[in-house]
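Exercise (ungraded).
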Amino acid sequence: MNITGSDLILLGHAGMGMLGSLLAAWVFFEALHARKENAVRTRNVALAVAASMAAVWILGGYWYVHLYPGDRAVILKGPWPFAHSIFMEVKEHLFFVTLILSFYLPIAARDRLYASAAARRLVMCVALLIALSAWAIEGAGGVIEHGAKLALIQAGAKGAR
Amino acid sequence: MNSATIKPGRASTAFLLAAAIAILFNTALACVKESYPPLNKAMASLTGHHWTTHGLADIALFAVLGLVFWKTGAAEKIDANRLTSLLIASVVIAGGGLVAFYLLF
């Protein structure tokens, strides 16, 4: 089995992104059923969302800056150049929206959600936006990987099919 | 006082407004740096890559604006539900703006 550091970084950033989106969904449902008893858990999970997305930023950022240029060159020469020119370009900038929301979520979750309908709505809204944007980004990542695969198949990479 | 009248806290509203502004700034900066290569180059020279600088600028703006609005209480004058709607609108505009720009650019 040949698993390199770059494989771990690539899969790690996608895995942390999925984890962050699922944690955001968890926050959504905790806020939906906000009570004094789940207030601490809601805050802690919101912090975990922020930590997950920070990890995505670091891992994905390292991959993008240091390891992606080779993939980019391959994709742009292949049958799906839009996998980079549209999907990666949108993904790399849309991620900052998710990141800002993720850093904001623990701040909003510090309010007494069980005592304020407006605070509850706010946290639910932010958590939902994080989850939806993260899933869109995850999907874009799939398109980008497929663009690389198609380019390699086109180039006649041995065993790629 | 019932839950319908209790507002989110000062920090929540301050950083909510900061988040909405930073999210819109993110898309605006993406469009400008792609359209004006000297800016892209300048951003790359700061940290080694324009994307790294872009992210740091977004987070720094969010943090600084959030602290300013928190200290001044500027966001407290705006209705909390209106601020939430503003945030949703900023995400939709920013996301849609990015898709539109890269589809057309």
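Further reading is listed at the end of the chapter. For now, observe: The mean pLDDT of chain A is 95. Helices of chain A lie at 5-32, 39-77, 82-109, 117-154.
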